[in-house]
Amino acid sequence: MDFQIREAISANMKGNSATDIREVVEDAIKRGEEHLLPGLGVFFEKWWKMADDTKRDSVLNELATAFK
């Protein structure tokens, strides 16, 4: 089976509001299931591609702090 997780997640999330997306992210984190991590990675990838360097640097600094 040639399953493309990026395409599937993008199709499932298309047209969702910020509230809908927040609920998906919070549910995935709350459940803590490893198989949900790739989906969160797709969210991050989508964001990364549209963010400018200032936003990216800000998030990278926040992540560096979170992993201290």
From TrEMBL:
Highest taxon listed in the record's lineage: Bacteria
Protein family according to the UniProt entry: Belongs to the SspI family.
NCBIfam families: SASP_sspI
Keywords: Sporulation
Coiled-coil region: none
Keyword Glycoprotein: no
Annotated gene: sspI
Induction and repression of expression: Expressed only in the forespore compartment of sporulating cells.
Membrane-spanning residues: none
rRNA-binding as UniProt keyword: no
Name of the featured protein: Small, acid-soluble spore protein I
GO biological process: asexual sporulation; sporulation resulting in formation of a cellular spore
Pfam families for the chain: SSPI (PF14098)
Compartments where found: Spore core
